[in-house]
What we know:
This protein is an alpha+beta fold. Helix content is 29%, strand content 22%.
Amino acid sequence: MKNSGTKEAPIEGINRRNFLKLLGGGIAVALTYTELNALSKQPGLFPPGDDTVAAWIHILENGTVTVYTGKVEVGQNIRTSLSQAVAEELGVPVGSIEMVMGDTLLTPYDRGTYGSLTTPTMAPKLRKAAATLREELANMAARQWNVSKQTVAVKNGQVIHAASGKTISFSDLTKGQKILLPVNEQVPLTPAEKWTTAGTAVAKVNAKSFVSGKHQYVSDMTMPGMVYGKILRPPSYGASLLTADIENAKRLPGVTVIKEDNFIGVTAPDPQTAANALARIEARWKTVPQPSRAEIFTWLKTHAEDKEQGAPAAVKEAWQAAPIQVQQHFEVQYIAHVPLEPRAALAVWENKKLTVWTGTQRPFGVQEQLAEIFSIPKNNVRVMMPDTGSAYGGKHSGEAAVEAARLARATGKPVKVMWTREEEFKWAYFRPGGLVEVTAGASREGLLTSWEFHNYNSGGAGIEVPYEVTQRHIQYHPSDTPLKQGSYRGLAATANVFSIESVMDDLARQLKQDPFRFRLNNLKDERLKQVLEAAASKFGWTRQKNTGVGYGIACAFVKNAYVATCAEVAYNKSNGQLQLLRLVVAFECGAIVNPLHLENQVMGCVLQGLGGALFEAVDFKDGRILNPSLSSYRVPRFADIPELDIVLLNRKDLPSSGAGEAPIVGVAPAIRNAIADVTGVKLYTLPLLPHGMTLKT
């Protein structure tokens, strides 16, 4: 982002609405901060709302198109796919687009980047804005040339009148004009079958800045006069501060100690001095009893907020009458996000205004949080999100931003707070642990007749069974969790799909039916059938298995996308050693915007899913996290990666949906079912193999 303004002070008297009005509305020129400071002293015009083209797209004098969105880049490469959407409708090359993302001063309000919602919600909004602008540019040129609009074409940043040979660039056409143009929600959009830019494997637009090291993460950023901050943290969850002796810390040169009620932090010229100062603080804490990992699943059920409602009599009766029955509970451990870049923030106060750079999926949410905590108007807080080093749903909150802002206010200096890896493990939130209880029945012909499903704590995502079943009762029970928990890639769908697909496999094996055919026979959703068939075909489901090899399959409908996964597992009976040989994943999310990056998204989901499936688990006792490091918390490594095939189904007849989450959910159940196939051992916990790739029976 050329105009990201990452090292400038806040601008006096300017916010998004008067920024746009100063620029004249619908088509504007993106300016530097020096120019913005000058503009802020000028009288304004009528401010446009965020329903105008000006809120989303501006054409620069040099022909560059600047696009504004509150969505942020966390590694999913939406900067490229959103650029493709605009380029397709506006008729410009992708290379002419500059994307400004996640800046609460410059971009329209956005709830956040989560839930695989960017492609299905933001892309259509930008497409409509671009198409509206395209139509207006054609109108402007037609009026200027006194020709019919139907005789002009918009292409490659120009309006062209073929009959006369006249052409005019966008920048020449709009220069000096102030156009206030509402986005036309009914404007015709280019159908997917006619895409020429969208739907193609456009390379990551700013890949060079990452490869060369030019990109500045918050962890890399500096400002003149900046100091580094560290926070004193309790020894366990729920602990409260009794006393703290800060005198030894204050004696270190350049160190400032900030104590406000129970908040204690230090600042210093460098991170090591700040860490040394923190270590000199002698604090006493009052701890409170906390449930530990050994008792967590009993705790989650007994502390459920929404007590179990008995299933309707018809469901109970259908299960009791079913000749094929399964009754099972599943345990899913809390796991950590483990982002490449732990939380970080840089904060500066000037003239009672606060500017913060931080890696967050919700810049506007952090802005509101900061405004509330410091009791200042929201317009006096600016939050910017440079691309962060991954998030996986783990950076919705703004802890580091609040800490940096608090220290900056107390010291009067810019302050950067960077969490350590241990702090990230201990004080960030986790994917929820959960207990799932399932009772299911089927006829001897292999048709589902009853389904009762209860999820305690982990969540309701993916909880609906996708199969046809005569009687069903499905309920999610929130619980009093002892650990901080929040969003994670796929969230509760990982637990729920694992449970659903494990039960489906157990039923099929009781029936002595092929698990693939059993699923097809209980499905009416043609899209889910298609991904199942695509995965099974690529995998070679019907081919003869080698000795000591098992096959597993799973499928799901999550976030308006469809996934099917096949796994091949080898088992050495003499030593109990398991080996994951191969995974095949078929995925369908409507019309594909960028096949290369979609494949990367699916691959990233699958590889991350290996950790939660096989060995990732947070260990805790008495409110303390016991494995807060990469040496004690096992994440997937290169040696863990099996042969992987990805099959993408391109449905140009359907709207595009998101792809950042759904592919993860099939990994664990497919591997579990393959293990059951080759060993006969049915596993009901995640992770499946917490002690390594050895099956302990």
